[in-house]
């Protein structure tokens, strides 16, 4: 009955979002990714999911520290901050507050999944949002219910009640400002899991996780494997499996950073390489000379369609271009043929929309900035 109620209300949430004061423009992106907060889930008195004497909190801490080491070793311009580096209990609110206080460019929360169904396996990555099918309800509620370890959690989380489907519905009324970039990072993570680990790809999804609720930067929660599944457990409890998972997350971070910054050659690390030794991968060149490349400056995104003549666009009323992705409507200005040209436009647009950022399209389809630049350069 709870799940049916959840399905009914998800349709209403989209309408409610249009009536709330949810910020129209993204809060993040200065065109650089220089600070990442890595969040090993659970810790201390909160073990997370368990199997015998194997605790999620220990596995994710190991993966997180390995990932941070890789980033520090290979990106001198990136500051790595952990929400914990030891077996310490940290509240969900403290995790997101740390990221916000640092004005981080990216937040990554690392977890291990579990299910009563022992055949359930694989990796998945989530962004804050609406799960329209309600199939992610169980994992969301399990991860959120760790707040019951905290004193006065109802006041801290503005009325959230552990185990309550109705509370989940309320907490989907969140900022959508960073959904596009969060989903981009989530999709890239899944791609690298699929490429570098034996984990089944369960996809990039939306779900209302409290740890992502108030972050003001692109944020994801990744479930690396299922501790309840024998195959997954054998992989993720081994040093090799944790190394490969960390490398996958590093490669995903590197690709995301390259995409945001327009770098042509993202740094990638192979599974056969020592964890601190990078290997440069040169992107394959596209021989087609007929692809039409456009750079635009995105100023807004929305889960529902907005008229291009809406007053919400203020200065850019009637001047925006709409692009429909799988989950979002994206609104941009300008159609530039060169990267330098769009950077100048971005600077001008940021006088009105301080968080406007560059996007790229080839033949009308959105692509990475790096791929678009490779085609014209």
Description of the molecule:
The relative contact order is 0.15. α2 crosses α9 and α7 (about 180-195) crosses α9. Helices cover about 35% and strands about 20% of the residues. It has helices spanning about 1-20, 55-75, 90-100, 135-145, 155, 165-170, 180-195, 230-235, 240-260, 340-350, 370-375; strands spanning about 35-40, 50, 55, 80, 105-115, 125-130, 200-205, 220-225, 265-270, 280, 295-300, 320-325, 330-335, 355-360, 365. It folds into two domains: about 1-280, Aminopeptidase (3-Layer(aba) Sandwich); about 295-375, Sporulation related repeat (Alpha-Beta Plaits, 2-Layer Sandwich), CATH 3.30.70.1070. With about 375 residues, the chain is an alpha/beta fold. A six-stranded mixed β-sheet has the order 4-1-5-8-6-7, sandwiched between helices. It has a five-stranded antiparallel β-sheet with strand order 12-13-11-14-15. Residues about 1-30 and about 275-290 have low confidence and may be disordered. A hairpin with a 2-residue loop joins β2 (about 50) and β3.
Supply the key terms.
six-stranded mixed sheet; five-stranded antiparallel sheet; Alpha-Beta Plaits; single chain; Aminopeptidase; 377 residues
Q: Concise description?
A:
The protein is of the alpha/beta class and 377 residues long. The chain is built from eleven helices and 15 strands.
């Amino acid at each position: 009955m709870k799940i049916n109620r959840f399905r009914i209300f998800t349709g209403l949430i989209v309408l409610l979002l249009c009536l709330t004061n949810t910020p129209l423009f993204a809060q993040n992106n200065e065109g650089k990714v220089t600070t990442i907060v890595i969040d090993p889930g659970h810790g201390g008195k909160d073990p997370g999911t368990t199997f015998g004497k194997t605790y999620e909190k220990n596995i994710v801490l190991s993966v997180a520290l390995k990932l941070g080491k890789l980033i520090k070793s290979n990106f001198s311009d990136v500051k790595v901050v952990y929400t914990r580096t030891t077996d310490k209990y940290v509240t969900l609110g403290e995790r997101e507050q740390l990221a916000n206080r640092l004005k981080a460019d990216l937040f990554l929360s690392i977890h291990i999944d579990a299910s009563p169904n022992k055949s359930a396996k694989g990796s998945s990555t989530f962004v804050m949002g609406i799960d329209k099918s309600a199939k992610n309800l169980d994992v969301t509620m399990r991860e959120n219910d760790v707040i019951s370890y905290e004193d006065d959690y109802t006041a801290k989380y503005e009325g959230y009640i552990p185990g309550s489907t109705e509370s989940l519905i309320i907490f989907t009324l969140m900022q959508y400002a960073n959904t596009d970039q969060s989903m981009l990072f989530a999709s890239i993570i899944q791609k690298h899991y699929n490429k570098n680990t034996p984990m089944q790809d369960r996809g990039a999804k939306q779900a209302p996780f409290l740890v992502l609720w108030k972050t003001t930067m692109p944020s994801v929660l990744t479930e690396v494997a299922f501790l309840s599944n024998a195959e997954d457990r054998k992989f993720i409890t081994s040093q090799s499996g944790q190394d490969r998972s960390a490398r996958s997350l590093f490669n995903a971070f590197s690709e995301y950073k390259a995409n945001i910054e327009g770098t042509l050659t993202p740094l990638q690390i192979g599974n056969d390489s020592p964890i601190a030794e990078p290997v440069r991968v040169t992107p394959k060149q596209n021989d087609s000379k007929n692809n039409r490349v456009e750079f635009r400056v995105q100023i807004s995104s929305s889960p529902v369609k907005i008229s291009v003549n809406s007053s919400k666009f203020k200065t850019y009323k009637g001047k925006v271009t709409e692009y429909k992705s799988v989950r979002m409507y994206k609104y941009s200005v300008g159609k530039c043929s060169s990267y330098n040209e769009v950077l100048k436009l971005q600077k001008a647009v940021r006088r009105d929309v301080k968080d406007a950022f560059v996007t790229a399209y080839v033949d009308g389809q959105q692509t990475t900035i790096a791929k678009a630049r490779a085609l014209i350069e």
